[in-house]
Amino acid sequence: MSLDHLISIRDLDYREALLLLDTAEQMAATQFRRVKKLPTLHGRTVVNLFFEDSTRTRLSFEAAAKRLSADVINFSAKGSSVSKGESLKDTALTLQAMGADAVIVRHSSSGAAHRLAHAGWMDLPVLNAGDGTHQHPTQALLDAMTLRRHFHRDPTDPEVEPLAPGTDLAGARVVIVGDVLHSRVARSNVDLLTLLGASVTLVAPPTLLPVGVETWNCEVEYDFDRALAQEPDAVMMLRVQRERMSAAGGGFFPSPGEYHLAYGLDRQRFDALGPDTIIMHPGPMNRGLEISAEAADSPRSVVVEQVANGVSVRMAALYLLLAPEGNPRD
């Protein structure tokens, strides 16, 4: 792979996106062994640089790095010199001086990962673990990996055949519902899923759609039930990010009850879905708000599978950026 960093889905072309997904499948195959660790990144040090709270993403990157035999340093802004006013630049210089080989960064400011990668403060690969409301590329990749597996699986065949390398998502229909305004997951998924040939429909109230969404490569719908009438292959529910809404003063919808009535995947909507439609969610879930317990816990929910695939995707990204055989320019 020719990339030096993984900052945005828009940095990937079609071939690179499929290479990441195919490599993730290879990584996933190794996780059924008795010994899951690979020696690929032995002697390398990966830093988890998290300026924003996270559970799934941080633990997933940590697991991915350790399964490739890298050493991992977890850095949290809380309790560090950042809380004393240290700048992103000085933190970067410190990491370079400590001998880090790659930095995984999560930050509340859009563009922070790009700044860290390209400001000239350090000469290390940067993986974006989510920056503000901008991008979350590995989340989109794990979502695409999950969807690709189910879209190309014959539900009548008990034997699950491995995907052929280079399999894309041409013909898949995906509905993404909820707080698009604050969602880096929605942006990244629209970019990646459409790159791979899927059609995407965003569903949200007007107050939860960003300015300029009409220029995105997707359809926009305000009526959830009308979008479901398209018989999608996947319905992805987005978390209502109440912490960002509170910071902006609130007022994005009348009440939680009314939001759930109009845009929640309740029992009635879930029961009306086609038998092969899968339910996705990037987590953490607000049960009873954007998704009902019946939908979240149903056999068609692939939320737990998404988490497992996240480790494989992040192993693939680290391998392709850091391993000599993955990135010949290293």
Automatic annotation (TrEMBL):
Q: List each copy of the Aspartate/ornithine carbamoyltransferase carbamoyl-P binding domain by range.
A: 5-148
Supply the enzyme class, top level. transferase
Q: Name one GO cellular component term.
A: cytosol
Domain Aspartate/ornithine carbamoyltransferase Asp/Orn-binding, which positions? 171-321
Entry EC number(s): 2.1.3.2
Q: Which domain of life is it from?
A: Bacteria
Enumerate the UniProt keywords alphabetically.
Answer: Pyrimidine biosynthesis, Transferase
What pathway does this protein act in? Pyrimidine metabolism; UMP biosynthesis via de novo pathway; (S)-dihydroorotate from bicarbonate: step 2/3
**Sites where the protein binds L-aspartate:** K84, R184, R239
Reactions catalysed according to its record: carbamoyl phosphate + L-aspartate = N-carbamoyl-L-aspartate + phosphate + H(+)
Stored HAMAP family = Asp_carb_tr
What is this protein's function? Answer: Catalyzes the condensation of carbamoyl phosphate and aspartate to form carbamoyl aspartate and inorganic phosphate, the committed step in the de novo pyrimidine nucleotide biosynthesis pathway.
- Put simply, this protein is called Aspartate carbamoyltransferase
What protein family does this chain belong to?
Answer: Belongs to the aspartate/ornithine carbamoyltransferase superfamily. ATCase family.
* BP GO annotations: 'de novo' pyrimidine nucleobase biosynthetic process; 'de novo' UMP biosynthetic process; amino acid metabolic process
Q: State how it assembles.
A: Heterododecamer (2C3:3R2) of six catalytic PyrB chains organized as two trimers (C3), and six regulatory PyrI chains organized as three dimers (R2).
